[in-house]
Amino acid sequence: MKCLRGLLNLMMSDKDIKEFHNLDKLKPISLRGKSTYHIMYAHDFTWGYLDNVDNEKLSKLCIKNYENRKSEDRRSGRAEDIVIPLNKQIEEIAAQMALAYEQHFRQPISLMEGEGNHWSQVHYKKEQSQFHHHLGNAYGQREKGADVVGVYYVKVPKDSGVLIMKYKKHEFDSSRWYFPPEENKFILFNAGVEHGVSPNENDEPRVIISMNFERKDDKNI
Ligand SMILES: [Fe+2]
């Protein structure tokens, strides 16, 4: 075969050789559109602060609904969650947090639809949150799990508890990341990261709003 190609090359002009090898007809390979960056799993989290939130008004709304729990069963993690109506302010908080997430992870997210995907937690003295995650069936009540958890801090008295996230540096590791809350601060992290809140040691209540987000571009990959 090598011999035959050599013989052909001798008998052909340069133009013929180029044509024979198709060299001029080949277009340079190029990238079609934009490539996509997709996170399969990450311990990474995003946090920041929001301005112009009426924390007083939100705090009152959450405290007013203190008895209105997602579950009456105190053994369930859902009993820690307070049902609050979705108002314009909460929608805007979610939208700004989603924007911050997209800036870092380059993936659009949005607040999941449905009543169960935003709630409040109000912790009075010695109250805390047990460890949990936000994946599907986390409490036997939510079939569709979240992709991303968002927390916004409405009212944070001194020593009123820290967010604790469990993460594994390797298979046998059980590290903890302690995230200090502050008023106007928010955090977004993977829904599979187990997290809890240490007890409030202050006489004043600590108030947060928690949200479930989903990635918009997870379909049709
Ligand atoms: Fe949570």
Description:
The chain has four helices and ten strands. It has 221 residues and is α+β, with helices and mostly antiparallel strands. The chain folds into two domains: 1-29, no CATH class; 45-215, Jelly Rolls (Sandwich), CATH 2.60.120. The strands form two sheets. Strands 1, 2, 3, 5, 8 and 10 form a six-stranded antiparallel sheet that branches. It has a four-stranded antiparallel sheet with strand order 4-9-6-7, with no helix packed on it. The longest helix is centred in the middle third of the chain and has 18 residues, at 88-105. The model has no long low-confidence stretch (mean pLDDT 87). The structure holds fe (ii) ion (FE2). Fe (ii) ion (FE2) binds at residues 132, 134, 149, 195, 210. Residues 132, 134, 149, 195, 210 line the site of fe (ii) ion.
Give the name of the CATH superfamily of the largest domain.
Answer: q2cbj1_9rhob like domain
CATH third-tier fold name of the largest domain:
Jelly Rolls
Gyration radius (Cα, Å) is 27 Å
CATH architecture of the largest domain: Sandwich
What's the average pLDDT? 87
Give the count of helical stretches: 4
Termini distance?
44 Å
Helix percent band: 10-25%
The total domain count is 2
What amount of the residues lies in strands? 15-25%
SSE order in H/E notation?
HHEHHEEEEEEEEE
| Anisotropy-based shape | elongated
Query: Structural class from helices and strands?
Result: alpha+beta
Give the cofactors and ligands. Answer: fe (ii) ion
What's the CATH class label of the largest domain? Answer: Mainly Beta
List low-confidence stretches: none
Largest sheet: 6 strands, antiparallel
Number of strands: 10
